[in-house]
Amino acid sequence: MNILMVLSMDVVELLSELVRFDTTNDPAKGIKPPKDCPKFIMETLSSWGIEAELIEKGGYYAVCGEIGSGKPKLLFMAHFDVVPVNREEWETEPFELTIKGNRAYGRGSADDKGNVAAIMFALKELSKMEFEGKILFAFTGDEEIGGKIAMHIAEKLKSENKLPEYMINADGIGMKPIIRRRKGFGVTISVPSEKVRVRGFLKERTFKISTPVIETRHAAYFLPGVDTHPMIALSHFLRNSNVLAVSLEGKFLKGNVVPSEVTLKYLEPGEGDEVEADIGLTKLLKAIVPLVRAPIKPEKYSDYGVSITPNLYSFNGGKHVLRLDIRAMSHSHEDIETTIKEVLAFNIPEAEVTVSNNEKAGYLFTHPEDEIVRAMLETLENFGEKAEPVEGPGAADSRFFTPYGVKAIDFGPKGGNIHGPNEYVELDSLRLLPEVYKEVALKLMERNS
Predict the structure, then answer these.
(1) Are 43 and 5 in contact (CB under 8 A)?
(2) What is the β-pairing status of strands 52-57 and 60-69?
């Protein structure tokens, strides 16, 4: 894209360019977002007179910079990496922005390239204005797998005494300030394969996801009692029958993405042929129901409580491996590990358990009367948007800054199907977003001058 085209783009056209970059993050398949997308972001900002630098950590990239002068008061952050795509479920090309009415479809349109484009345009306008203080910005490429670059930026700013007072983490949805978000934990359970030969009938059954109210695959959005998780349904089936599991296949994508379907091959004992079944796999799959009901006690209240979803399965080195995604308003993994081990001690004593937890990450818990919340609500009201502070279901990179005392909110445009097929952003919301970010930034800079 030439410089004249860049200079004349609007926010929708910029989003279209960003969606064209396949920035899928899929460590299980060794896929990382390439350098071309962050390079494009940096070059676009440069063409607008905004200097930025490209940083790299562990093969992942981020674009960082600042505008203004004096003490850092505000940090804008958004991420350009996206989760994997199951193309069979998409009605449009996921890496081409497709506009239908007020919706623009494409992977990352809502999570989170729409926010990247909106912040870039807000910075473009803010860079032409005078204000007291400094605005920092960062566009990161590893949020979907844990956000180590955001953690690095937070640590660096802390060590240099440059932490901002406020942070707008543009990684939300709904045009509502998100003031609370739980922390994410990963639990890996492995059970040895235990083959037995049993006479009976080999059968197969497929279990599919159902999300009748909110179409998404994001694990944090999964709501028991409303949605159907295929792995939990499979477990319920096994627990209420006398069959033995033989093998399991499914459309497994990522630790925090609910698989759209799983297929169980199983043996129904009887007068049929002799078939090799797996006692270890049967035990592991049966344990899913009690595992997702594990009585984990959080540190603080959450509207979403504690959520536990079994989203990844694999067979490695003679062991069946199940990965749980756990969301809780907690810092420590010790209580979670203890509780999960209690469940397994009753169901699969031979199981091995590991809990992954980034101790430098916290959870988002900002007071609704804080200055940054009030500034956002006032700005939205001025633009005719009625909103109130809410809790978001998923985790985000703001969790690396809140432990240092940075007052943060997560925010984003209206849209849907986060982490799922046919992800979209609402265009009227997206077009308003740069002005919202600009005005909130100016309010915060003025009030704290």
Answers:
(1) no
(2) antiparallel
Contact yes or no for 395/87 (Cβ under 8 A): no
Stretch (H or E) spanning 136: strand 133-140
Q: By the 8 A CB rule, do 283 and 348 touch?
A: yes
Q: How many residues does the chain have?
A: 449
Query: Nearest Cα to 98, choosing from 423, 430, 428, 420?
Result: 423
The DSSP annotation for 358-384 comes to -TT---EE--TTSHHHHHHHHHHHHTT
Q: Classify the C-alpha dihedral 274-280-283-289 as positive or negative.
A: negative
The closest alpha carbon to 299, from 333, 252, 348, 265, belongs to 333
d(CA 122, CA 408): 18
Beta carbons within 10 angstroms of residue 140's beta carbon: 31
Q: Model confidence over 338-366: pLDDT tens digits?
A: 999 999 999 999 999 999 888 888 899 99
Place of tokens 């605005």: 135
* Model confidence band, residue 331 (pLDDT cutoffs 50, 70, 90): confident
One DSSP character per residue, 330-342 reads -S-SHHHHHHHHH
- pTM comes to 0.87
Q: What is the per-residue pLDDT across 19-32, written as a single tens digit (0 to 9) for each? A: 999 999 998 889 99
Q: What DSSP designation does 390 have?
A: E
What's the gap between Cα 49 and its chain centre? Answer: 32
Residue 286 CB coordination number (10 Å): 20
Instruction: Answer for the pair 378, 389: CB distance below 8 angstroms, yes or no.
Output: no
Q: Please report, for residues 58, 160, 400, the alpha-carbon distance to residue 157 in angstroms, rounded to integers and kept in the order given.
A: 19, 5, 11
CATH 3.40.630.10 residue ranges in the chain? Answer: 3-182+363-447
pLDDT band per the 50, 70, 90 thresholds, residue 418:
very high
Instruction: Please give the single-letter amino acid code of residue 31.
Output: I
The dihedral formed by the CA atoms of 363, 367, 372 and 376, expressed in degrees to the nearest 10: 100
Going by the DSSP 8-state scheme, the letter that residue 146 receives in this structure is T
Between CA 110 and CA 171 the distance in angstroms is 9
Rg (C-alpha) for the chain, rounded Å, is: 23
Q: Which residue has tokens 């005719």?
A: 384
Work out the angle at residue 410's Cα, subtended by the Cα atoms of residues 404 and 414, and round it to the nearest 5 degrees: 175
Q: Does residue 123 contact residue 67 with C-beta atoms inside 8 Å?
A: yes
In whole angstroms, give the CA distance from residue 227 to residue 199: 36
Write the CATH number of the domain with boundaries 3-182+363-447: 3.40.630.10
Surface-to-core class of residue 213, CB atoms within 10 Å of its CB (0-12 exposed, 13-18 middle, 19+ buried) = exposed
